[in-house]
Amino acid sequence: MGGGRSPCCDKSKVKRGPWSPAEDVRLVSFIQKHGHPNWRSLPKQAGLLRCGKSCRLRWINYLRPDVKRGNFTLEEEHSIIRLHATFGNKWAKIASHLPGRTDNEIKNIWNTHLKKRSLQLSINANENRTHSLSSASGVSNEFTNIQENTLNQKVTEKATGEVLVEDVDQPSTSSSTISCNTVIQGNASSGLNDTHLYSEEEIFKNNLDQVPLEYEVEFWDMLEPQVISDYDMLEVENWVRLLEKELGPTTTATASQQNDQDDQTNTMGQTISHQISPFWPTSPNNLGW
DNA sequence: AACTACATCAACCGCCCCCGC
DNA sequence: GGCGGGGGCGGTTGATGTAGT
Predict the structure, then answer these.
(1) What is the pTM of this model?
(2) Which nucleotide does the CA of A88 lie closest to, via C1'?
């Protein structure tokens, strides 16, 4: 690499900032009709005063019909946590394991929710705290060992099934045995003033959000697989209604016209009709296009 | 009601990789 | 093999929304 590389576009001649509904319509219509063989030239061809990269980003993160909208489910958050432990900040890699979710979205939710929780737990763990999980709860010894390494704790399993946990740094002040359920224990400085026993029922019903992050990876394995629909169709319908409301009729290609085409393949090797048909309305009237 | 602090997330920036010439 | 263009990716920013005082 090196100097002299031309910028992707002339920034003085392109519009920046939030996309307007009209721009969205223009971009969606163009891609429905032509695909996106070349992002750099697309804005000009579509009549958009935008940088090609901006168009690509807008399409991938927001306008693509198979983008899953709405809040992340607990299962998705669980997946992100696990995948992040495996891949690190490889958001695209993580996103590839979560259909309908974009790298940008995952990156955002990690930075806003999950990372914070992770950090909080690290702080708590490094302060005064003991914990363990019973073998009866289904949590594996492997998990205990992981905690031992991570938290600098010495973990001894007794013949009775009890587990003795000692902080290596402060062995005399913070050791305990725990024999049932999940114990979350802390002190004032850790922000966990109470010792609380979470029954599995309680966790299932009310407190999934409160299960500390470091428990989660193994903890979640205890849960019965939840049936979660692949896509929140309500969100999709709301999105379509919003588009109907915000976007006026256009003279561009319609979804039904698109569907009339035989599995047209764009230059990315993607089958356009398959991209669109599952979520975009079959009739253009549904969108007012 | 007004102000401030904090949270959220869409969008931008710049670097890197891949591929065709 | 070197070069340049295009796409993809990860980090960061800033506008907007929301909660707290």
Answers:
(1) 0.54
(2) C10
Q: CA of A45 vs C1' of C20, distance in Å?
A: 49
Residue pair A185/A192 in contact by the 8 Å Cβ criterion = yes
Number of domains in chain A: 2
Per the domain annotation, does A242 fall within a domain?
yes
Q: State how far the alpha carbon of A75 is from the alpha carbons of A82, A93, A254, in Å.
A: 11, 17, 36
For residue A162, which of A144, A148, A178, A175 has the smallest C-alpha distance? Answer: A178
The b-or-e profile of A211-241 (16+ CB within 10 A means b, else e) is bbbbbbebbbeeeeeeeeeebbeeebeebbe
The model's pLDDT over A53-112, given as tens digits with 9 standing for 90+, comes to 899 899 988 888 888 878 888 888 888 888 888 888 888 888 888 888 998 999 888 888
In whole angstroms, give the CA distance from residue A76 to residue A134. Answer: 26
pLDDT for A2-23, tens place per residue?
333 456 677 667 888 889 988 9
Residues A289, A249: Cα–Cα separation, whole Å: 4
Residues in chain A: 289
Name the closest nucleotide to A14, judged by C1' and CA: B12
Domain interval for residue A148: 127-198
Q: Are residues A190 and A241 in the same domain?
A: no
Q: Are A134 and A181 spatial neighbours (Cβ–Cβ below 8 Å)? A: yes
Nucleic strand B near CB of residue A34 (< 7 Å): no
Q: A213 is written with which tokens?
A: 């992050």
Q: Please check whether strand B approaches the CB of A231 to within 7 Å.
A: no
* Nucleotides on chain C within 7 angstroms of protein Cβ: 4-12, 15-16
C1’ C16 / CA A243, Å: 20
